[in-house]
Amino acid sequence: METNDSILQKRQKYLYPTKVPYYSEPIHLTKASGSYVWDESGNKYLDVIGGIVSISVGHNHPKIVARAKKMLDEGAIQHTTFLYLSEYMPRLAEKLSNVAPGDLSKCYFTNSGSEANEMAVLTARVATKENMVVALRHGYHGGTSTPLSLCGHSTWKFSSQPQSGVTHAQAPNCYRCPFGQEKDNCSLECAEDVKEVIETTTNGKIAAAIIEPILGVGGFIDAPTDYHKRVYEIVKSFGGLYISDEVQTGVGRTGKNFFAIADSGVVPDLITMAKGLGNGAPIGAVITKSEHAETLRGKLHFNTFGGDPFQAMQAGEVIDIIEEEKLIQNADTMGRYLKEGFIGLMKDYQIIGDVRGRGLLMGMEMVTDRKSKNPASAECAKLMELCKDQNILIGKGGLYGNVVRIAPSLSITKSECDELLTGMAVAFEKLTK
Ligand SMILES: Cc1ncc(COP(=O)(O)O)c(C=O)c1O
Q1: Do 198 and 262 fall into the same domain?
Q2: Which of 42, 77, 353, 429 is the most buried (most CB within 10 A)?
Q3: Is residue 36's pLDDT more than 80?
Q4: Entry pTM
């Protein structure tokens, strides 16, 4: 097997310098099963970040492996475009329309979340004949052209990336409220900011607002109750469509509904998804109302690999497994258990300023002290290394890289949660001693 040094050298020589690996000594993962992954030396890690929030039903789920093997053994076609018939893509679309809120029923399949957002924004612009899209500061929607315009993080933006037809409202961040308010004791100033932004930076009409139910890359920022409802009303009053970007929050992750926006009682105009939908297979999707999809009729829009049989099969299995194994309920139960555990850690370690999230999308914001709330970015990076020493792979995010991100497979067990809590307690102890 190729050595890690050789892999790193080749990466440095042949890959874009934007591809920076995690850890001072990057891990070479070679094997996986359920909530665990193994490196090339046989070290076993509890994986609670799943790539980046992409493992929903467990690594190498036996049902998906069996189905994939069968397809390969039978010489089933691996690739065909939508120009030919295949049972997998429409069947997946049917399944998604069964789990989507309201009357969302028309799908478009892509290879990634970025492309799904490109398509959602295009749909909204065509449907409304307007151009302007409201996005949120601290939001993230992908690395292609339109999503980079929508991005609310200097970290991910390029000086040569034009930002056209986009305006940004404040994030609904209760821990660092941009309006100086207290959680659950405010007038939803963050939602009203969407109105002010439309009134002051657009022609008074918009194509859409694109909003993550919980801001993922932003550091698992969970909006106050009723935020999404109020923003939906505002967006509608200016003629726009509401796009819920569920690339991280979808597929049951928040432990209540298949799509997190339904947790807020909102039926959006479009939902985008990827990551956990394929459980690691590269598939993304948009689902929208028939009336919006109809506005594109008469035009062709091509995507070579979107909805390929092999990818669509895996996503279809994911939806079935989530239902059969009651993984949304498990996400709720295990999420509550973990949250209690993290709040316990917060009592012991002052460096944890905030614990937030829902279901199995859980964040811990690290600060140098709780009064100043200065981001403890270096400490968060160190914590990742210390967790790795405990054979636990966590993620981090937030504008300052100071938010621990925990997003395990929805199938995580109680004993795996205990393993995580015990390992993290050791890591925090070492970090702060
Ligand atoms: C909320 C959100 N939307 C879109 C994307 C882009 O997805 P992809 O990386 O599959 O293009 C991401 C990726 O992290 C994301 O977190």
Answers
A1: yes
A2: 353
A3: yes
A4: 0.98
